[in-house]
Write a structure and sequence with these properties.
By secondary structure, the protein is α/β, with parallel strands linked by helices. It has 2 domains: about 5-175, Leucine Dehydrogenase, chain A, domain 1 (Rossmann fold, 3-Layer(aba) Sandwich), CATH 3.40.50; about 190-345, 3-Layer(aba) Sandwich (Rossmann fold). It is about 45% helix and about 15% strand. A hairpin with a 5-residue loop joins strand 1 (about 40-45) and strand 2. The two termini are about 25 Å apart.
Length: about 425
């Protein structure tokens, strides 16, 4: 029995067990690899606009510091709990190791509906969260980034709060900041750029003509919308899009630009002028490319049996359950899976670039950022595909096997202290 409970952490544990069996990791080494080094739970009291005081529960999990400081986003959502945050931190560790970044994984969050907060309340909660975590974070200990429910502005508040307590500007304490505050060109778009780039690599691998390809994107936030634009630029027709408010499907293609403008004005797809579609059925519509870019565990075994895509590009963290993975393996090679720890790694890769630039106070242009991003993604893609072919395993097993083994070897070389 541990403090790390719930369906999301159970999923991460099952995935790790599969990889540990594949790598033949000794039973005595498994818990040290899986369980986080540190988990912090905090209470965040703030004054609400109506004069009341409200207390929100916050968390931060640091999985391992073997390769360097931990790195990971901060999520403001109603679903946040210790188990979810811990699972996301574990996945981030394998993601960073797969990409060759000098980080361990971390994740944090607050259990809150950010849409229910005013701007002043959001700032107060953001600053209180960072203030409570100051003893446990730092540019060489744990570096935060945005995630669901947070953005550049929240990162700027985090940075300012930490800096005020240090008595100097410490821009490298967070990534995903506004460019004017030490952020980097391309960070906001990075995850979506990476999803689109790797999807294009998969299309090339399968000899799919982008101008004849169709795509469905579940989730139309930052990742989904940027991915849609980038695929559209490559000639792919976007036939399905959804967010938590609305769902649309049209085999003739959707007006992506109009949708992005609508979300920019209204905050969601609700009210967009097009025929609504059943979101339950969206994932199983025929298409060349399916991109889940929302929450964990949206593709279970039943959905996996009904998938009619050629490429499954996981823009979200943990969208496919272990049971669904088993179904996809049984289906053979008819679906090319780009696993989450590869597919959505663009965000943490460009966050690494931002951290390096802040430490050096030497900044790159957009083209250089994207070029360096694509180089790392190309190498990771090649490593995963070649490992899968060599060992006759799934892309997920290959990707996680590479990431887990790199962490395992680093821990072995460093030894156990004391």
């Amino acid at each position: 029995m541990t403090i790390f409970q719930g369906p999301v952490f159970d999923m991460a544990r099952k995935q790790f067990t599969t990889i540990a069996d594949y790598l033949e990791i000794d039973e005595s080494d498994r818990e040290r690899l899986l369980y986080p080094k540190r988990a912090v739970a905090i209470s965040c009291p703030i004054h609400l606009d109506d004069g009341r005081t409200a207390v929100f529960q916050g968390y931060r999990v640091q999985h391992h510091l073997t390769l360097g400081p931990t790195k990971g986003g901060t999520r403001f959502a109603k679903s946040v709990d210790m188990g979810e945050v811990a699972a996301l931190a574990v996945w981030m560790s394998w993601k960073c190791a797969l990409a060759g970044l000098p980080y361990g994984g971390a994740k944090g969050g607050i259990t809150v509906d950010p849409s229910a907060l005013s701007l002043r309340e959001m700032e107060a909660l953001s600053r209180r969260y960072m203030q409570e975590l100051i003893p446990f974070v730092g540019p060489h200990v744990d570096v935060m980034a945005p995630d669901m429910g947070t953005n550049e502005q929240v990162m700027a508040w985090f940075m300012d709060t930490y800096s005020m307590y240090q008595g100097r500007t410490v821009s490298e304490i967070v990534t995903g900041k506004p460019v004017q505050s030490g952020g980097t060109e391309g960070r906001r778009e990075a995850t979506g750029l990476g999803v689109a780039h790797l999807t294009a690599r998969a299309m090339s691998e399968l000899a799919i003509d982008p101008s004849r390809a169709t795509a469905i994107i579940q989730g139309f936030g930052n990742v989904g919308s940027v991915t849609a634009f980038e695929l559209l630029r490559r000639g792919v027709k976007i036939i399905g899009v959804s967010d938590h408010t609305s769902c649309f499907f049209d085999r003739n293609g959707l007006n992506v630009e109009a949708m992005v403008n609508h979300v920019g004005r209204h905050g969601s797809l609700r009210g967009f002028e097009a025929d609504e579609f059943d979101p339950v059925d969206l994932l199983i519509q025929p298409c060349d490319i399916l991109i889940p870019a929302t929450m964990e565990r949206v593709i279970d075994a039943d959905v996996a049996r009904g998938l009619k895509c050629r490429i499954l590009a996981e823009g979200a963290n943990g969208p496919t359950t272990p049971e669904a993975d088993a179904v996809l393996e049984d289906r053979g090679k008819d679906i090319f899976v780009i696993p989450d720890i590869l597919c959505n790694a663009g965000g943490v890769i460009v966050s690494y670039f931002e951290w390096v630039q802040d430490l050096q106070q030497f900044f790159w242009g957009y083209d250089e950022v994207v070029s360096r991003l694509n180089q790392i993604l190309d190498k990771s893609f090649h490593d995963v595909v070649e490992r899968a072919k060599r060992d006759g395993i799934s892309h997920r097993t290959a990707a996680m096997g590479i990431g887990v083994n790199r962490v395992r070897l680093a821990k072995k070389k460093r030894g156990l202290f004391p």
